[in-house]
Amino acid sequence: MSFRNIHEHGTLLTKYLETRKSIFIDRLNWQICEADGMEFDQYDTPACQWIILHEFGEVFGGVRLLPSTAQCGVYSYMLRDAQRGILEGMPTDILFFEAPVKPTVWEASRFFVTDSVSASRRLLVQRELFHQMTVAAKRGGAKSILGIVPAVWARWSRRLGVYATPVGAKFSIDGTASQSVLFNIEN
């Protein structure tokens, strides 16, 4: 979903942002923006795309994609802005290299699967979410995706059958151990 086709999806974006609030603010206690029961930030712009998995009106997974070439005021994309020191609470040494600004590199953020997804369906939902994220990024010209993932990413990436390279040291944000990784999606 993008700003161009929001109108085709009724209240889905609202439900998605409400679900993000329940995950990142209510459950994980992240100190991030919210209004009217929704979580959003400076990266939810017309340059982004949202991948939202839903069934019968219930959101059960999502991720936000943003090309590394995006620009909105002083902001570009989360990892680059953290490295530039303009995101309070995020380390500036988040990447081992200078954050790229190339049409072939996109960023994924706010990846989640809700607790309402049963254990028997969880892996399937995670795989589908990652697949749809990859399809959308490739359609936009991406060959790789940067993202911040839980520090235990190696375990879940093996289960999903996806491969990533750590591209930053482990760090903690609001008590969540995380690490920056790069997914090669050319294949």
From TrEMBL:
GO molecular function terms noted in the UniProt entry: transferase activity
GO BP field: quorum sensing; signal transduction
Cited Pfam families: Autoind_synth
InterPro entries according to UniProt: Acyl_CoA_acyltransferase (IPR016181), Autoind_synthase (IPR001690)
Keyword line: Autoinducer synthesis, Quorum sensing, S-adenosyl-L-methionine, Transferase
SUPFAM superfamilies in alphabetical order: Acyl-CoA N-acyltransferases (Nat)
Record's keyword annotation contains S-adenosyl-L-methionine: yes
Family per similarity comment: Belongs to the autoinducer synthase family.
Protein name: N-acyl-L-homoserine lactone synthetase
